[in-house]
Amino acid sequence: MTTTSSHGPAQTPADRHAAPPLTVETTGLSRAFRGRAVVRDVSLRVRPGRTYGLLGPNGAGKSTTLKMLLGLLAPSAGRVQLFGEPFSRAALRRVGASIEGPSLYGHLSARQNLRVHTLLLGLGDEHAERALEQVGLTGTGRARARSFSTGMKGRLALATALLGDPDLLVLDEPQNGLDPEGIAALRQLVSQRTSDGGSVVVSSHLLAEVAHVADDIGLIVDGRLLFQGTAEEFAPDGDLERAYFTRTSERAA
Ligand SMILES: Nc1ncnc2c1ncn2[C@@H]1O[C@H](COP(=O)(O)OP(=O)(O)OP(=O)(O)O)[C@@H](O)[C@H]1O
């Protein structure tokens, strides 16, 4: 929050207009599959410099929502704004994502996998090296990605998402298979991105992990956004698990 002292300059309306736009704003986002609504009227607001934890039971509609944010699925209704502008492919240059598990070139090494992406993105090799370092995969040499453990594949997917220093990082279940070192590295990466003014959206079932990283929470149940607000508003006593069960069972009652 920006504050000014009593001796400092007063904030003018122009200053207020200079506030950065929301990183993501959806309005009435909905999606049906063969007539069955799985995302209903979801209006998400992801702010710059914040981590947004998207929670909800299996099948609630989290991945479907994230895919619509990224243009991987067309909404049945509603709209998506990225960085204050209507969704466009150009805006996706500022976005890194890992959705529904890693999709890797199994016959290539970690470094080669990243270089495929840096080539496509028009980035230098140094970006691939830095991403390898950020996720702790520099020592994997020529080993092919298909021989990696689940956690190593997860690290490589994260490295791919980090290429090009995205202003928005979207991670679907990024902790899957990560060891404690991997989870610690992930936390650090997330906090680094937001302290640089970027935004992170992370969907996860691991409530303790979300409690560690999320500034804001969105709770989706049965396709509807039941709650959206700060982590403190979601769980005033800090007990995210209890708040989650209370809020989801209220819905079921
Ligand atoms: N391509 C598809 N065709 C038909 N139904 C789909 C399709 N994709 C998702 N669904 C259905 O939409 C609903 C929401 O799925 P989604 O993957 O978004 O949930 P989720 O909250 O991400 O779940 P999980 O936590 O288990 O990953 C589910 O009932 C799922 O079966």
Descriptive overview:
Keywords: ATP-binding, Nucleotide-binding, Transport. Belongs to the ABC transporter superfamily. The protein is α/β, with parallel strands linked by helices. It has a single domain (21-252), classed as 3-Layer(aba) Sandwich (Rossmann fold). It contains 9 helices and 11 strands. The strands form 2 sheets. It has a 6-stranded mixed sheet, with helices on both faces. Strands 1, 2, 3, 5 and 6 form a 5-stranded antiparallel sheet that branches. Strand 1 (24-33) and strand 2 form a beta hairpin. It is globular, with a radius of gyration of 19 Å. It starts with 12 loop residues before the first helix and ends with a helix. Residues 1-9 have low confidence and may be disordered. It binds adenosine-5'-triphosphate. The site of adenosine-5'-triphosphate has 10 residues, from helix 2.
Helix content: 25-40%
CATH top-level class: Alpha Beta
Task: Indicate the low-confidence ranges by residue numbers.
Answer: 1-9
At the fourth level of CATH, the homologous superfamily is P-loop containing nucleotide triphosphate hydrolases
Mean pLDDT over the residues: 88
Instruction: Report the principal-axis shape.
Output: globular
Bound molecules: adenosine-5'-triphosphate
Keywords: ATP-binding, Nucleotide-binding, Transport
Organism: Quadrisphaera setariae
Protein name: ATP-binding cassette domain-containing protein
InterPro entries: AAA+_ATPase, ABC_transporter-like_ATP-bd, P-loop_NTPase
